[in-house]
Design a protein that fits this description.
The chain has helices at about 5-10, 55-70, 80-90, 105-115, 155-165, 215-225, 235-245, 245-265, 280-285, 300-310, 350-365, and strands spanning about 70-75, 95-100, 120-125, 140, 165-170, 190-195, 205-210, 270-275, 290-295, 315, 325-330, 340-345. It is α/β, with parallel strands linked by helices and about 375 residues long. The strands form two sheets. It has a seven-stranded mixed beta sheet, with helices on both faces. It is globular and about 75 Å long.
Length: about 375
Amino acid sequence: MVDYHDGTRAVRAGLPEPVPGQPFLPGPVFAGPYHLDPVAGPNAAPDAYGRESNPTLGRLEAAIAELEGAAGCLVFANGMAAVSAAMLALTRPGDAVTVPADGYFGVRLFADGDLVPRGIAVRAILTDADHDFTGVRLAVLETPANPSMAVCDIAALSARAHAAGALVAVDNTMATPLGQRPLDLGADLVVASGTKALTGHSDLLLGYLASNDPDLLATLRSWRSHTGGLPGPFEAWLAHRSLGTLDLRLGRQSANAAAVHGMLAKRPEVTNLRWPGTDPVALRQMRRIPGVLAFELPSADHVGAFLTHSALVHPATSFGGLHTTADRRAQWGENVPEGLVRLSCGCEDVDDLLADLAAALDRAAG
């Protein structure tokens, strides 16, 4: 088998064998039930009922598994559906889980609100702090963390967690499988939102889990079947279509972020500027750096003025899209400084982006 580079892999992942007269990527299959063999029933064909499987979802799952270096992948309706499936399906009352104290706050809200009442202990740990996995069943890591941009050593923490008997799930949303492959670094499970950079066009919601462990995949597949958290076939088809430009989009976004980081570092009103491209652990373990930065401005009003005066930065949540976006994270109820901004660089021309950001910051400060 040829070991292709990332761009080639992204363009071709999950595509069927070429057939004359057929499209490169077949269109979405819209079906609930499928014809069954009158004798063998569902054992005669791969698809029998839409809540269990769908050929469009199957092609997307094969593509993501290939990019993640996984034996299998399960797609979900969104990222929270995926991570909640992992945390509920793999734990029991009396277990303990760790979650990132500085990562996506929705995971902490879910853990505190839905795991703790079920008798599952939750420990929130800073991403780049020391981790004690004693008595832990499932360790959820996020690196780079959102919105702190903190990074942890996946290989080192996976080894430590396994020594303590814990499973390791790594949220790979910000990095994407072209940025890092947690399974290669020792993780048991990858969890991610495909809404963000993976699909990158700001037009769908998606989540997924990927693993090399057949028992984990079977458990999680059963959970998904019972709870029904699948995306629709059209969303799955859109996601697969979008994977083809992942390498190109990440390259432009990362280059833009490097230039924006250099410009913001010279601004006196910008403090606590963070980007994984300056972190030695990230540079060692990641294959490419994401296009997302975090920084602080003096106040909420200052952030509002900055976003109001920018022509190219869309005020919006989420990240990893074609368009540069930014949001003030405290407005969502996160326990972060009022002036914390998460800026996601898009695919605009870097000179235009730098000029727009500088002008907006000048006007906000003046």
